[in-house]
Every structure is written in C-alpha cells, then in structure tokens.
Write a structure and sequence with these properties.
Layout: H1 3-9, H2 28-42, H3 48-56, H4 61-64, H5 69-74, H6 76-92, H7 101-122, H8 130-145, H9 149-153
Length: about 160
C-alpha cells in the first residue's frame, strides 16, 4: 500500500450511520489524533506500540465503514468478520503493533471518551438522554477500572 492509501483511509467520516450524529463532520484521522493525545495525557508512559494502535485502530473503516455499536452487539458473527476485514486492511497499510490487554483497554477508553466528548461538543442536547447518560456511567466505570476516573470525570 502507499502513503496515499493511508492518507485516504484517514479521511473516512465517522458517525455516518448514526441518526443523531451523522451531520457531524469527524474524520478517522482527527479522531485517531485526539485518541493519541488522550492516551498521552492519561498515561504519559504509554508505549510506542499503544500509540501506534491508537493512531491506526480505525483505518480499516476505509474498507468496512463505521458500524453502529448496537449492530455489532446484536450481530457478533458479522462484527467479527468486520473486525477481521478492518484488521487485515490496517496490516496491508503496513501497520502492526504488539499491545497488552491493558493497553487495549486504555485505547478503548480513549475511543469511547472521544465519541462521548464529540457528541457532547457538537450535540450537547443529547447528553440529557438516558442512552448518553448510560454511556457516561459506563465511561466512568471503565475509567475507574483503569485508575483515571477522577481525571475523566472532571472533563465530561
């Protein structure tokens, strides 16, 4: 693959399948950059492998699109196929990383935190809905498990 392929993969729009957020312009590359910054703010000692994982984790959406979390939850076999296609594409771009379970959990927190904060910034009225309040509770519980609840809670 070429540099151009990676550049183009970073331009995929997020939220396109979400009725509440589809009008928000947010590209995978911007999202990934924010995640790298969050990872460094929350865990300054993050490994190069974790930073690579955060930077490249959604580039596979250039092949699969951005699937709704609910769809993935309700269709685990399809979600597994989507994950494999995305992972294979990321590898074809030349990205590989060897991350620990803790690093994966940290990146997942940053991923969910970025989604929540994007909605909070662009569509603040959504934060009053029970589904978004539940997302906030899940975020804080996950942050608690990773030892950064106070830092996260102060910002969301």
């Amino acid at each position: 693959m070429t540099i151009k392929d990676t550049y183009r993969a970073s331009l995929v729009r997020r939220w396109h399948a979400n009725a509440d957020m589809c009008g928000v312009h947010d590209e995978v590359g911007a999202h990934s950059g924010r995640m790298v910054m969050m990872l460094l703010l929350l865990w300054p000692d993050s490994s190069v492998e974790a930073l690579k994982y955060a930077a490249a984790h959604d580039l596979g959406e250039a092949r699969t699109g951005d699937w709704l979390r609910e769809f993935k939850r309700d269709n685990p076999e399809l979600a597994a196929q989507e994950a494999k296609i995305g992972s294979d594409y990321i590898k074809s771009l030349g990205f590989s990383y060897d991350v620990t379970r803790t690093e994966i959990d940290r990146v997942k927190l940053c991923d969910r935190l970025d989604a929540y904060m994007t909605a909070q910034h662009h569509k603040p009225h959504l934060m009053d809905r029970e589904d978004w309040r539940a997302d906030r509770r899940r975020l804080l519980a996950q942050a608690e498990q990773l030892g950064v609840r106070a830092r996260v809670e102060g910002d969301i």
